[in-house]
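Let us begin with a simple case.
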Amino acid sequence: MKTLPSDNKKSWNCFPGLAYALAFLIVLSGCTTVIPRSDLPLVTNESCGEQVKVVTVPLPVIATSPNEGITAGALSAFLIHNQKDEVYSLLAPQVNHNKNFGFTGTLYGSVNPTAEQNIEFNLSQSQKKNFDYEARIRDVSLMNGDLELKGFLGWFADGSSRFFGFHARTPNEQETNYTNREITYNLSATWFLGRHYYLELGHRFRSVSIGQGAIKSVPFITDKFSQQDVPGVDGFTTHAPRISLIYSSYDSKTLPTYGGYARITFEPTVKALGGAEDYRHYEVELKGYVPHDESKRFISVFRLMYNQTLGDTSNSKVPFLEQSILGGENTLRGYGRNRFIDNSFLLLNLEERVRLFRWEIFNVTADWELAPFIDFGAVMESFDKASSKNFEFNPGIGFRATVRPNIVGRVDVGVGKDGPAVYVGLGYPF
């Protein structure tokens, strides 16, 4: 969907029923069809056969968060199968509406040329402020599977971004809004060293500009905070090489049900390469999957994570969006994105993933899961200054649909002190 010029907005707003009608038609479109492969040139290959089964799964979209507010709409997931009746690729067009951004059109796609390769893209454009253009690639077919290559390229803008100040107990009265506009890439190569150990080398780039936000009822960030108070509020660039040592005993690289994971990462941002300042990220992450029966119907999952950001000198001004951050769909799910910012954070996520049933719907076999969870975390100046009174406790519940080998749709409802938040997306949160 293309953003309309300002002089056309009135004509667009005269026809809001058009988008709602389109969303309604999407919801009614569930079916299974057979289409010639010649009509699907970019999302099929020889493994799909000459006649391709395409399953259409319509879904409503209803989400709310402290940052964006309420978003409602609909999507249709087109699951394209190969001759083994496995999902080869996925296309998911979506239409939704949010009072702050107007109507948004989105097209998500995922293609699996082989079991070892995956390509994803997301194209999204709103009427106001927001857009998101992303591409990801993952390849584990090299060196007999001993080398994994990953790449991410993105250009996006988020007009709902919030800043409350630094440290753990930032009051709601300090809430400000801005638009975070970024161009970014993230590249990595991971080598298998033997006996579950891996070495990862990578590089991360981001160019960030800060502009007026879309939430008119909330002050702009520079109305309450100066550039001296908030480093990076006038924009910044990051060039960060990265090295990680990883241990993994997962039984699957895409949807594990058993095993442990540990990662130690060092990532310096280098001013000589074009970064805003010289500073360093240190991160330690532990994850585990513990099934409670042979059928793996009940799986306890945990993540413990510590992150610290340090400048090279006491006068280093680390950009605020490069510091240690909690809040959002993958960390503290009872809060909006980037709710808490400081030099360090400590985070614990606990989930009990319960497979309720295995159900075939629209000729697709999916595992339907219930996942009660607890998110527990805090930001702090340093680990030795952690205080129990600063930790946030976010209970919640997740609803998941899993189509193997690598598709997960989820709805997570978390509760924090700012109220409930509902996140809808793809993939597990950790």
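The second case is a distinct protein. As before, the sequence precedes its structure tokens.
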Amino acid sequence: MTDTDHSSPAQTSAPETPASALATAQAGAGRSRSGGSVLAVVLLIVLALVLGGALYYQNREYRTVRADLQQQHQQSVQLVQETRAQADQALSLVQAQTARLQELGRALETTSAQVQELDQALRMMTDSGSDLLLLNDIDHLVTIAQQQLALGGNVANAIISLEAAQAQLARANRPGLAALQQTINGDLDRLRAVATIDLPALTARIDRLSNLIGTAPLLVPDAAGHPAAPAAPAPTPETPAAPQSSTEPAPEGWRAMAAEAWHWTRDAAGLVSQDLRSLFDVRRVDDAAALLMSPDQALRFREVLKQRAVTAQLALMMHQSRIWQTELEQLSAAIDQRYDMRAESAREALKIARELRDTAIEVRLPTVDNSLAAIAAARDAAEEDEQDGNTPDDSGPDDAASAVRSPAGAPVGAGTV
């Protein structure tokens, strides 16, 4: 009985152990599920906070950018308004200038029309008026040609003046002035046949002569004619002798010493002979004073010759033939006496000086005295015709033309126009 009692509790406790373990496992699983859910909730909360912060930062940045854009937009609008105002001012200024230009254009057109009318009236008065008006204009043009020839020797301007007088006579078509027109044509032909002087070519040759005067060598050496040349290196004892032929054996002993002494003696004799030749120079000199000039005197002598060349150039410009001949004669003589004719530059300078000396710069120009005499004769004839009441042109018998044709009023009317 006792054994039976002790065995029953052991049997009853054995099946209870698995049930408690299952409960414990279920409790642990529940705790793990509750811990995972809490962790998930915490992660969701952290994620929500992060997203909220990012949204807040993005919203703040958006507001900042929006404020900057609004400010830039306002500045752009203000700048556009200022630019528009400036454009309006510029447009108004351009419109005002355009209106001013239009007014000036209209005034210019009016003035041009008036000038054309006056020119036409003057031509009508000259062409269809009295011969005295026409002769006054022709006399004025021919006098201008005479002044151009007498004062400056300007043949081209004289030809232009005579051509204008010729054209005016041809346009007037006066049979009574045919002799005057032929005389003007003759003077014009003589002026066109005049041989002019080539001033640029002569000036270039004078410049070349001046350069040669400054560089050509004189009989006495100076710094200008003989520039310093680099000195040649002097022979030294260490200079090796010329290599001997490979086929001949080199001398030895006393023969080598004799050959070296011979080379030294030959070199010394060559130097001495060169120095002696430089001490003596045989030349043919017509002027003994040419060999007594110092370098300073030679420099001043060159400057004087250059001044003579400048004087000759001025004489060429002013057509002073006597001064031209005198200066170039002095230059030729000085170059021939004081310069070394063995140099090519000296011979060229002498040749240019003599050629320029033989060139005539004073060309005898024809005058227009025949035209002036023909104008005076035509004026006398016209005055006699008007005094007799026989004017050559009867096409305009109106009062203005008759007033202009009066002998006393002709010069006054011409001067007024």
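The chain is about 75% helix and 0% strand. Residues 1-16, 227-246, 390-417 have pLDDT under 50 and may be disordered.
Keep these points in mind for the review questions at the end of the chapter.
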